[in-house]
Amino acid sequence: MAVINIQEKLNLFSDHWSPKKIGELNGQQILLAKIKGEFVFHKHDNEDELFMVMKGQLQIDLEGDTSVTINEGEFYVVPKGVLHKPIAKEEVHILLFEPLTTKHTGDVIADITVETYQTI
Asked: Does residue 43 fall inside a structural domain?
């Protein structure tokens, strides 16, 4: 494993809602993504999902009319089985840690679903 510069990796892509794998750790994948707009409501039955905001502000709507706001330098863990929908009013850069088995849109298949993450 080499030293990874997160900003250099972020500079390699511009597409939204398509996470890029930058490493693996103990059965977990380390992903970077740029997001803007609204994702789909979905859940992961067997995995928690960590969202760390590197740039911008992320809102995550949760089931039951609850939402959380995550600011730059903060992270939030969505517990397994909880319906959630990320929303980015402006472009947001996020770092995600999730098991290798985690599906992009969880239990939902949508136009934005990514089956295999590109490694950069």
From this structure: yes
Domain assignment of residue 89, given as a range = 6-119
Please list, in sequence order, all residues whose beta carbon lies within 8 angstroms of the beta carbon of residue 30, skipping any fewer than 6 positions away: 21, 22, 23, 24, 95, 96, 97
More confident residue, 109 or 71: 71
Which of helix, strand or coil describes residue 73? coil
Is 1 among the domain residues?
no
Question: Which CATH number do you get for residue 30?
Answer: 2.60.120.10
Q: What six digits make up the tokens of 58? A: 């992320």
107 lies in some domain: yes
CA distances to 5, 67, 83 from 113, in Å: 27, 23, 16
Give tens-digit pLDDT for 15-48. 999 999 999 999 889 999 999 999 889 988 988 9
Cα 83 to Cα 64: distance, rounded to the nearest angstrom = 9
